[in-house]
Amino acid sequence: MSQPLASFNFTLFLAAFGSGLSLTLGLITLRDTRHSMSARLFILLLLTAIVHWLHPWLPTTLHSYSFIIQSAAPALFWMFCRVTFAESKPFHYAIWLSAFYSFLAPLTFLLINQPQSLLFALKTLPQWLEYLLVLAGLWEIIANWNQDLIEDRRRLRAGIMLSTGLAVGWGIVSFNLQIGGIVSRYLALNIAILILAWLLLKSRIEFWSVNHKKPQTLGRQRLTREPSPKTQSSPPTNNDLTSLQRLMATGFYRNENLTLSLLAQELNLPEYRLRTTINQSLSYNNFNEYINALRINEAAHRLINEPDTPITNIALDVGYRTMSSFNRAFRKTYDCTPSEFRASQSN
Q1: What digits encode the pLDDT tens for the residues 279-289?
Q2: pLDDT at residue 47 in the model
Q3: Are 240 and 274 within 8 A, CB to CB?
Q4: C-alpha 206: how far from its chain's center?
Q5: Which of 36, 50, 30 is closest to 193 using CA atoms?
Q6: What global pTM score does this model have?
Q7: What is the mean pLDDT of the chain?
């Protein structure tokens, strides 16, 4: 009797500690929900964790609904990673529909009294989608890691990947395959929340606001911007900025598959200093946005000054391999296609 009681007390302690920590972190984040979708999704993700912790102590009549709420965690995890770390990616309807289906299908299965004929479509398939959504969320974190120019956000990527991703993933595997037990899931979640709390509070930046600034481009703005008021541990020197602008003036940005690493090698600068230079002095949060802005700036000038040059040639000359990527980047800056822009300038 004493051993099960001790195990129960330890589980209850982990549940209370994790719930209290999540609630505190959620309250700290609450002030940012008005202007940040990332903050809202993060709070919803914390709520699913709280429901998971408290599930054993809920009335049995609520267990089915508790499972439905918990099943939303993978979808919320992917949505959070998508909104937070994939600023300039195109919208993919298939993944968004899969995310909603992963928890709406089990809810439908419950509401229509669990018909066995729909077991695969409304319960088994959503469980497999949960695995895919966790992997998709981790991919969103990894995909643009090297292009991210904000050091605090790069550290948060690592923290989320090592904590939330693994904790959510282990929670799904442990629950669906019935391995590890409740204590292991609670420990994983507590560690995840502790890591996230430390990272978010240690950075001392308006993280949620930074993530949702509208991407800045050079299209209708001056190439050289006023320095950002943000402060970082390694501020850029005037020589770094001058070297960068001198190289870009030669058209180095036209190189296909240009990466931050290749640019840093060409400038003989450490990557962290180049990231700081572009972020602090030119106010860009993403390397690809900076390169696209330079390319679109040149393309716009050529569309006006070279009316007989085919648009395809201009796109290839400035560094785009496909017209679709060129059109997407151009529309993001000017809210129109290159052909529409050229026509409007010729009138």
Answers
A1: 888 989 889 99
A2: 93
A3: yes
A4: 16
A5: 50
A6: 0.76
A7: 82
How many whole angstroms separate alpha carbon 41 and alpha carbon 83? Answer: 9
Q: What is the spatial distance between Cα 253 and Cα 243, in angstroms, rounded to a whole number?
A: 14
Q: Among candidates 35, 11, 333, which has minimal Cα distance to 184?
A: 11
> In this structure, which amino acid lies at residue 18?
G
Q: Which fold has domain 238-346?
A: Arc Repressor Mutant, subunit A (1.10.10)
- Please report where in the chains the tokens 């992997």 appear, as a residue: 135
Reported as a single tens digit per residue, the pLDDT across 176-201 is 777 777 788 888 888 888 888 888 77
Which residue, among 211, 199, 159, has the nearest Cα to 40 in the 3D structure? Answer: 211
39 vs 88: CA distance, rounded Å: 18
Contact 190, 18 (CB under 8 A): yes
The set of residues, in sequence order, having a beta carbon less than 8 Å from that of 129 and lying 6+ positions away, is 74, 98, 101, 102
**302, two tokens:** 């050529």
Read off the tokens for 147.
Answer: 């292009």
Residue 290, Cβ density class (10 Å: 0-12 exposed, 13-18 middle, ≥19 buried): buried
Classify residue 148 by its DSSP letter: B
- B/e letters for 278-287, b = 16+ CB within 10 Å, e = fewer, are bbbbbbbbbb
Contacts 24+ apart (CB under 8 A), 229-232: 230/205, 230/279, 230/280, 232/151, 232/276, 232/279, 232/280
Is there a contact between 288 and 88 (Cβ–Cβ < 8 Å)?
Answer: yes
Question: What is the rounded distance in angstroms from the CA atom of residue 342 to the CA atom of residue 347?
Answer: 9
Q: What is the mean pLDDT of residues 25-49?
A: 87
Q: Taking Cα atoms as reference points, which of 37, 42, 12, 13 lies closest to residue 25?
A: 42
Q: 24 or 167, which is more confident?
A: 24
Comparing CA positions, the residue from 136, 143, 198 lying closest to residue 168 is 136
Q: Look up residue 296 and give its amino acid.
A: I
User: In sequence order, what DSSP letters do the residues of 277-301 get, joined into one string?
Assistant: IIIIIH--SBHHHHHHHHHHHHHHH
Domain boundaries, given as residue ranges, for the chain: 2-211, 238-346
pLDDT (tens digit per residue) in 222-241: 333 333 333 333 445 578 89
81 half-sphere exposure, CB direction, 13 A CA radius: 29
| AA letter at 142 | I
Alpha-carbon span 9 to 229, nearest angstrom: 50
